[in-house]
Amino acid sequence: LSDPTQRDRLTQSTARAVATVATRLGGKTLALFTSRERLNTVAELLEESLRPEGITVIAPISGNADPHDLARDFMESEHAVLLGARALWQGVDVPGDTCQALVIEKLPFEPPGNPLAERRQQILQENGGNGFMDYSLPRMLLRLKQMVGRLIRTPTDRGVVIVVEPRSDRRYFRRLLDALPPGATHELVKLDDLPERLDAAVDRES
């Protein structure tokens, strides 16, 4: 998203989605980001909206923040949301009911300008393949599956995953189901309808 207006809209939508979920659940929400800049901005917005609700916002204050320390603070807080970038995509578990919802700020495609990724896509194209469908999309789905794995670790785990993504009209969007656990239900929801749909999902699980 190179358009500043689009970036700002995504940031605002993500903050609104996290606030909606966290308010409904009393915290217990993990939000994962592809951009540290958007993470920092959303953290500031959530401080304003969630602090008055008694919900703590836990976010890395520097790129050197230990993800395990952040996860521990999250688990030790009764009402909190945890924001994280790539360091929290894998290798950090939040067991039990501490985390009941996951908000993913944007599909984790490879950032543009990676020469190795571009070269691999070029080789695929030259050999009759499709650089996007055969390389970029599968790698994105693998990262997405890792992100979902922060919430769903065992067959008995339950939770809500929300992907805040403006490109839902793309044909590949249906492939997101490949990153979800077998049997997971899904639906495309407008942000304005999220509170109602979230209530319905939570009621089904209770």
Structure description:
- The protein has about 210 residues and is α/β, with parallel strands linked by helices.
- The mean pLDDT is about 85.
- The N and C termini lie far apart (about 40 Å).
- Strand 2 (about 55-60), helix 3 (about 65-75) and strand 3 form a beta-alpha-beta unit.
- Helix 1 packs parallel to helix 6.
- It has a five-stranded parallel β-sheet with strand order 2-3-1-4-5, sandwiched between helices.
- It contains six helices and five strands; from the N terminus they run H-E-H-E-H-E-E-H-H-E-H.
Task: Give the structure's gist in a few sentences.
It is built from 6 helices and 5 strands. By secondary structure, the protein is an alpha/beta fold.
Give me the secondary-structure topology.
Blueprint: H1 4-25, E1 29-32, H2 36-50, E2 56-58, H3 67-76, E3 80-84, E4 101-104, H4 115-126, H5 131-148, E5 160-163, H6 194-205
Parallel strand pairs: 1-3, 1-4, 2-3, 4-5
Helix pairs in contact: 1-2, 1-6, 4-5
